[in-house]
C-alpha cells in the first residue's frame, strides 16, 4: 500500500506535510533487531483498535537516538510509509526563535495540521535543540525556548493513547533532554540506532547500489572494510560520488575501484573535520608507515590493502589493513613463519618510535601493536612452534609458565631486532611514505607499492632463525 495522503479538511494547505514520502523498511539497511521495534510502531497505526480494546497504551512519542546520518529521519519516514499515513516534519531548530511565542505557535500549527490529517507521523528532528532541560539557558532566548517546550508538552499530552498521531523525534543527546519530555505518555520509548558495523555497511551500500548500474563483480566487502566508522549518509554519498566517477570516464558500470576511490574522498572529508597538530600527524604516520614498510619484507603481508592515518571512531590512530588469508586466520591455522612475520610487523611501530624519536622520547603510541606481538609470541610458544617445545601439560605447571614467557620474550626480542634492522635499511623509503601519508592521509595499495617500486626496498640478510 502506498502512502495514503488524505485531503485536509480545511482549505489551508498543510505547511509541514511532506508529500510523496514513499520510504519502506526495505530502503533502510543494517537495522538488525531494531526493525522489530519499528514494526511494532507501524502496528500502532494499522492495528490501533486492537491495542485500545485490550487496554494497551500506545506511546505518544518515540525517541530515535543516535549520531547524525545513521538514518533516523529515513526510519521515521519508513514508519509512515509502511503504515500508509501522512508524514509531518519539522526541525526543532526551526522552533527556536528570538521572538517569544513564535516557536510555540509553530508547534501548535504543526500538531493541528497533523491531527486534521490523521493518521499521521509527526517527526521532530534534533529534538535537543528545543528539548534541553528548562532553565538552563538564561535570558529571553531561554524564555522563548521554554515556552516552545511547554507547548510541545501540551501537544504531546493531547494525543496520549489515541494512536492517531504518533510523534517520532530524533536526538543525539537523549541525556540532556528535559525530564518532563521523557515522562510516561510522552517520549517514553527510546530506540538507539548505532553506527553500522561491517555487515551493516555492506547492506547499506547494497541498498543504495540497487538503483545504480553496478558492475556484477563489485566487492562490497572491500568497500565496507575501509569505511569503518562511517554512517549511512556517508556510505550513500560514496555510491553517488562513484557514479560521478564512472560518468566522467565515460563508462557504463560502477566498479569496485570507483567505490574505493570515493570512499577515500569521503574519508578525507571526515579528516578535515578533525584537527591534530602537525607533529601528531607525523608521529602517527611514522607509526603506520613502519608497519607497512616492514611488511614489504614478507610475501604474505606485503599486499596491504591500504594504510591510513585517518582517525576513526574507536581507533584514535591510523592503521594498516593487511590482506589476510581470512580462512587461515579464523581457523587458527597459522604457520610458525607467518606468526614470526606477524610479530615482526606488529613490533615495527615500537622500533620506529625508538629510531625516530630515541629511547628517552618513546611514547605509548605502539602499545596496542606491541600487545598483539606479545600474545602472538605466546601462541607460538604454546603451540609448540618455537625452538623449545612445550606440551599441553605445561599450561598447568607453574614453573613451566615462566619458561614459556621467557621463550616468548626471546622471540619478541629477536623479531624486534629484525624490525629495527629492516627500518634502518629502508630509512629513505620510510621518509617518503611518511611524507605521502602526512600529505594524503591514506595510501591505497597501489599508491604504496608505487613508492616501494620507485625508491626500492632493501632486504635484510636472511634470518638466523
Ligand atoms: P539522520 O536522521 O540519522 O541524521 P538520515 O536519515 O537523514 O540520518 O540519513 C541521511 C541519508 O543517509 C538517508 O536519506 C539515506 O540515503 C542514507 N542512510 C542513512 N542510514 C541509512 C541506512 N541505515 N540504510 C540506508 N540508507 C541510509
UniProtKB/TrEMBL annotation:
Report a single Gene Ontology molecular function. Answer: peptidase activity
Among the GO biological process terms of this entry, one is: proteolysis
Keyword Coiled coil on entry? yes
Q: Which GO terms describe its cellular component?
A: cytoplasm
Q: Which residues form the AAA+ ATPase domain?
A: 58-197
**Identification of the protein by name:** AAA+ ATPase domain-containing protein
- According to its UniProt record, which protein family does this protein belong to? In the N-terminal section; belongs to the AAA ATPase family. In the C-terminal section; belongs to the peptidase M41 family.
Sorted UniProt keywords: Coiled coil, Hydrolase, Membrane, Protease, Transit peptide, Transmembrane, Transmembrane helix
The protein's superkingdom reads Eukaryota
In the complete protein, the residues contained here run 392 to 856 of 882
Amino acid at each position: 500500500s502506498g502512502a495514503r495522503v488524505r485531503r485536509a479538511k480545511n482549505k489551508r494547505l498543510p505547511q509541514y506535510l511532506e508529500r510523496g514520502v514513499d520510504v519502506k523498511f526495505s530502503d533502510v539497511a543494517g537495522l538488525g533487531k531494531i526493525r522489530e521495534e519499528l514494526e511494532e510502531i507501524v502496528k500502532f497505526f494499522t492495528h490501533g483498535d486492537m491495542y485500545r480494546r485490550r487496554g494497551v497504551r500506545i506511546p505518544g512519542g518515540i525517541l530515535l537516538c543516535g549520531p547524525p546520518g545513521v538514518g533516523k529521519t529515513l526510519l521515521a519516514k519508513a514508519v509512515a510509509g509502511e503504515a500508509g499515513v501522512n508524514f509531518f516534519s519539522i526541525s526543532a531548530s526551526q522552533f527556536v526563535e528570538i521572538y517569544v511565542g513564535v516557536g510555540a505557535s509553530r508547534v501548535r500549527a504543526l500538531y493541528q495540521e497533523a491531527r486534521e490529517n490523521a493518521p499521521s507521523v509527526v517527526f521532530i528532528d534534533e529534538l535537543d535543540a528545543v528539548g534541553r532541560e528548562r532553565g538552563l539557558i538564561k535570558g529571553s532566548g531561554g524564555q522563548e525556548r521554554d515556552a516552545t517546550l511547554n507547548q510541545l508538552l501540551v501537544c504531546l499530552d493531547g494525543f496520549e493513547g489515541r494512536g492517531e498521531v504518533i510523534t517520532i523525534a530524533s536526538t543525539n543527546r537523549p541525556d540532556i533532554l528535559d525530564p518532563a519530555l521523557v515522562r510516561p505518555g510522552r517520549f517514553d520509548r527510546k530506540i538507539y540506532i548505532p553506527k553500522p558495523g561491517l555487515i551493516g555497511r555492506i547492506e547499506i551500500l547494497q541498498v543504495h547500489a540497487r538503483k545504480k548500474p553496478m558492475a556484477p563483480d563489485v566487492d562490497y566487502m572491500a568497500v565496507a572494510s575501509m569505511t569503518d566508522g562511517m554512517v549511512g549518509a556517508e556510505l550513500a554519498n560514496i555510491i553517488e560520488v562513484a557514479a560521478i566517477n564512472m560518468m566522467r570516464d565515460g563508462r557504463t558500470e560502477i566498479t569496485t575501484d570507483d567505490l574505493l576511490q570515493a570512499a577515500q574522498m569521503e574519508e578525507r572529508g571526515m579528516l578535515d573535520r578533525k584537527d591534530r597538530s602537525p607533529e601528531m600527524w607525523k608521529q602517527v604516520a611514522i607509526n603506520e608507515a613502519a608497519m607497512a614498510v616492514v611488511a614489504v619484507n614478507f610475501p604474505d603481508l606485503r599486499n596491504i590493502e591500504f594504510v591510513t592515518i585517518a582517525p576513526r571512531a574507536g581507533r584514535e590512530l591510523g592503521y594498516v589493513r593487511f590482506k589476510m588469508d581470512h580462512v587461515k586466520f579464523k581457523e587458527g591455522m597459522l604457520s610458525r613463519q607467518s606468526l614470526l612475520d606477524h610479530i615482526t610487523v606488529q613490533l615495527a611501530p615500537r622500533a620506529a618510535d625508538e629510531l625516530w624519536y630515541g629511547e628517552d622520547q618513546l611514547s605509548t603510541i605502539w602499545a596496542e601493536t606491541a600487545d598483539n606481538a606479545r600474545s602472538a609470541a605466546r601462541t607460538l610458544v604454546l603451540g609448540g612452534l618455537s625452538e623449545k617445545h612445550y606440551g599441553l601439560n605445561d599450561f598447568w605447571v607453574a614453573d613451566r609458565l615462566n619458561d614459556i614467557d621467557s621463550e616468548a620474550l626471546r622471540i619478541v626480542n629477536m623479531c624486534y631486532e629484525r624490525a629495527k634492522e629492516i627500518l634502518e635499511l629502508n630509512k629513505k623509503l620510510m621518509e617518503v611514505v611518511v611524507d605521502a601519508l602526512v600529505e594524503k592521509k591514506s595510501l591505497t595499495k597501489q599508491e604504496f607499492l608505487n613508492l616501494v617500486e620507485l625508491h626500492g626496498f632493501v632486504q635484510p640478510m636472511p634470518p638466523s632463525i
